[in-house]
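Quick log. Single chain, no ligands specified.
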Amino acid sequence: LESLQQKAEQRDALQQALQTAETELQRAQRACADAEAELQNALHQWSQQRADAEAEVRTLNTTLKQQHERIQQLQELGKDSICPTCEQPLGDAYHEVLQRAQAEVQETTQQLRVLYSRIEQLQQEPEAIGQLRTKLTELQRQLEAAQRQRAQHHAELQQLEQELQQTAELQNQI
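-> predicted structure:
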């Protein structure tokens, strides 16, 4: 009878431990899900930044090509011709218009250099993403540990309940 009482107390303690393990498992599952979502969001943002930078490069390259064509057109026309934009005689403004067009080319070229540098930086995985991967790996380890703990408590509880049932059946036979 005393052994039966001890086993019943052990069962109650195991049930409490199993409940605690279930709670810890749920916490670990939520933490993993949150970390996975955070990582996916960071990866999406990184990918979007690269795509945006590459689109901007394409736009600036188109702009640069148009600027070069404008300079070429101005040079072909010369200072005594009509401005292709405003249709006024270029005259004395020719050199100023040409210098402004060349300055625009230099500015666009500088923007492209900066953008190419940014794209090169974006080819490397950001440190924050590496940290999120490390965090997720640790959380997954914790999740696996919580699953093992729950499984262990569950198996122990089943074993103890089986022993209690067998003891109760023996007592009924006596």
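DSSP finds three helices and no strands in the chain.
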